[in-house]
Design a protein that fits this description.
Layout lengths: L1 H22 L7 E6 L5 E12 L2 E6 L4 E5 L3 E5 L1 H5 L2
Antiparallel strand pairs: 1-2, 1-5, 2-3, 3-4
Length: 86
């Protein structure tokens, strides 16, 4: 009887741990990337995700495009007002 209760408790704890990331989803962040090009011009794009790749930054734009930009040429900030302008 004790073994059965222990197994049920162990299964419940394991299920709770596995479902915790699904239950506690982080709020979406309103990120923008400010990109500086080699000719000195700048551009600002809305991004949904980014990841460092070697000496570059992988950016996923709001419209689905993916860009790889040199790490020295991009600034990533959180800006709610820029997202609301649309």
């Amino acid at each position: 009887m004790k073994k059965v209760l222990l197994v049920i408790l162990l299964v419940a704890i394991t299920a709770t741990i596995c479902l915790l990331p699904i239950i506690l989803k982080p709020a979406p962040r309103n990120l923008i990337a400010k990109i500086r090009y080699f000719d000195g011009s700048m551009d600002t794009i809305r991004i949904t995700g980014y990841s460092p790749v070697g000496g570059s930054i992988w950016l996923k734009a709001d419209d689905g495009h993916i860009a790889v930009i040199g790490a020295n040429n991009v600034i990533i900030v959180e800006d709610d007002e820029y997202w609301e302008e649309d």
